[in-house]
Design a protein that fits this description.
alpha/beta, two-stranded parallel sheet, UDP-galactose 4-epimerase, domain 1, binds NADP nicotinamide-adenine-dinucleotide phosphate, 2 domains, 13 strands, 16% strand, Rossmann fold
């Protein structure tokens, strides 16, 4: 039986990838710093992330799948959440790649982002570009997957979509940052997991795949689709970025979370969450919304509480 190490195995996409790996007959080793903090109902063998230990946690591993990353940099709060940053995530991922190289794993399947860019002023897209280059430099065979946004299976797991629905349910109007004509190409997390496992089992030369879904929406269209799905009508107001950011900041403070950062708004409006060409997968956002609309946005999904 082949062994696959998966980072974020107790997190979102990593959990779906691990379940798919088990279905395909792999032995799963989860790499995590959240052992004991997050539930492990599937009973995966857990090892610490390589930057937290001297031992080579990838010894004997055939394939590494990496989902580790932080969504935004956060300065931390006394008595609350610890600080985390993109710089730290880049450094840690480099350590992970070095461990994979030392262990001589057969392939690395790495999660990146649509439109990474080493020249970007946005640390998310710049850091992802830096890591794609760092992985290529290891000389290990790899598949780099570039998703734009993940959704499914439950409402609470689909943070952006759920919190847009939550805003529709709780506010008299919603907003686009500028005209809202920038696009998003969501992919279902199970489609993403199947793609990751296809790549894990592949002998193909190293490659980069845009892991985007079958449907593309502008941000404005996504508001409209969500509103129709949950049976509400709300005005969708175009507002300057700074105004939209202040509103998201205020709402975030009310729910004790970081709802959307200035950089995330910039990334969206630079059209970085879409690519040209056809999408992958079989599960459409529009259909999933019909099936999950009743639950969507009833509860706010908090990024920070996931880290508690
Ligand atoms: N979710 C999306 O819509 C989306 C869209 C585009 C790209 N992506 C990419 O897809 C990958 C996986 O996304 P995901 O949503 O599945 O991620 P996730 O489960 O939220 O995070 C993956 C793992 O990263 C670690 N992590 C996350 N935030 C952290 C923090 N603040 N401090 C320390 N460790 C943290 C955790 O590992 P531990 O086990 O150690 O806690 C977590 O299990 C990422 O590379 C992301 O950039 C996601």
């Amino acid at each position: 039986m082949k062994t696959i190490a998966i980072t974020g195995v107790l997190g979102y996409s990593g959990r779906y990838i691990a379940a798919e790996a088990v279905r395909r007959g792999w032995h799963v080793v989860g790499l995590t710093n959240s052992g004991g903090r997050l539930p492990n109902p599937a009973g995966y063998e857990l090892r610490p992330m390589p930057w937290s230990t001297q031992e080579n946690v990838l010894a004997g591993v055939d394939v590494l799948v990496n989902t580790y990353w932080v969504r935004f940099s956060y300065e931390g709060k006394k008595g609350g959440h610890a600080a985390f940053s993109h710089d730290e995530a880049v450094e840690n991922t480099r350590t992970l790649f070095a461990a994979a190289q030392r262990a001589g794993v057969g392939r690395v399947v790495h999660t990146s982002i649509t439109c990474p860019d080493s020249a970007s002023e946005l640390p998310y897209f710049q850091g992802k570009a830096e890591l794609e280059a760092a992985l290529a430099a290891t000389g290990l065979p790899y598949s780099i997957l570039r998703p734009a946004i993940l959704f499914g299976e439950s409402a609470q797991e689909s943070i952006l979509i759920n919190n847009m629905a939550w805003s529709l349910r709780h506010l008299p109007a919603v907003a686009t940052f500028g005209w809202g004509d920038y696009r998003l190409q969501p992919i279902h997390v199970q489609d993403y997991a199947e793609l990751a496992m296809n790549e894990a089992g592949s002998d193909a030369p190293s490659r980069i795949i845009n892991a985007v879904g079958m449907e593309t929406y502008t941000f404005r269209e996504l508001w409209g689709l969500l509103a129709r799905s949950i049976g509400l009508w709300r005005p969708i107001l175009p507002v300057p970025h700074a105004v939209g950011y202040m509103a998201a900041k205020l709402l975030g403070a009310l729910v004790g979370d970081v709802m959307l950062t200035r950089d995330e708004i910039a990334g969206l409006s630079q059209d970085r969450l879409a690519v040209s060409g056809s999408g992958l997968g079989t599960r459409r956002l529009s259909i999933w919304l019909q099936q999950h609309a009743a639950m969507l946005g009833l509860e706010y999904a908090s990024e920070l509480s996931r880290r508690q």
